[in-house]
Amino acid sequence: MKKTRIVKSALPIYMAAAVWLVFGLIHPVYKLLPLILCAVLSVAAYFVGLKLFPGRQEEYEAAPDSGDAEVNRQITEGREEMRRLREANAALTDPGITERLDRMEHAAGKIFEALERNPRQAMEVRKFMNYYLPVSVKLLDQYRTLDSTGLNTDHIAKSKAAVENSLDMIAVAFEKQVDNLYRNTHLDITTDIQVLENMMAAEGLTDAPSLARAGR
């Protein structure tokens, strides 16, 4: 799961050091009073630097923490596969291919997030993790190798076309896998709405049509 951290800037430290350098050229910092004054100015420069250059936010992939060691291993291996897909995506220039690879990467990330939140769903994505994802990445690696030849001979062109034609199918399959993981969530929501509606109707609080039935 992606998290955000603050990467601190080194500029406040440089500003504090610059005070010592400049002050030392003007005053003898080996004397107590100038030394104290320089230290105060240096600290002030550091905190001013923190205000001016607070650092930048950076996203990073935290180690999976599902509570299940085997699921954590699967997520880690899945992320490695996605790293390879991301590398292939960066190396290719066709916007149509990039768009479908972006969809695949986004969907896979959501699968890993859902699995980390609920490791009991591991069986539901076993084929995805063990076959669909690695084979898809293998196809992209092969496509990248073919594309790097710069040639458009018969076998190369046909092989590239076969991969290109399969990408939309793969992206849709990845997205449906995400949707399947939220099937139970939909059922829970529908049940909660039905119970809530029945309780409100029993109290004479509503005569609106069922939201749950409307969503089916």
How would you summarize this macromolecular structure in one to three sentences?
This protein is mostly helical.
Explain this structure to me?
The protein has 216 residues and is mainly alpha-helical. The chain folds into 3 domains: 57 residues, no CATH class; 114 residues; 35 residues, no CATH class. Helix content is 74%, strand content 6%. The protein is built from 8 helices and 2 strands. It has a two-stranded antiparallel sheet. Helix 3 packs antiparallel against helix 4 and helix 3 packs parallel to helix 5. The chain is flat and about 75 Å long. It starts with a strand and ends with a helix. The relative contact order is 0.09.
Number of beta strands: 2
Low-confidence stretches: none
Average pLDDT number? 88
Physical arrangement of strands within the biggest beta sheet: 1-2
Structural class by secondary-structure content: mainly alpha
How would you sum up the major sheet?
A: 2 strands, antiparallel
Give the ordered list of helices and strands.
EHHEHHHHHH
Structural domains: how many: 3
Helix percent reads over 70%
What share of residues are in beta strands?
5-15%
Gyration radius (Cα, Å) is 28 Å
Enumerate how many helices there are, as a single number.
8
What characteristic shape results from the CA principal axes?
flat
- Oligomer state equals single chain
Distance between the termini: 31 Å
Task: Show the helix and strand layout.
Blueprint: E1 2-7, H1 11-26, H2 32-52, E2 56-61, H3 69-91, H4 95-117, H5 126-148, H6 154-181, H7 183-202, H8 211-215
Antiparallel strand pairs: 1-2
Helix pairs in contact: 1-2, 3-4, 3-5, 4-6, 5-6
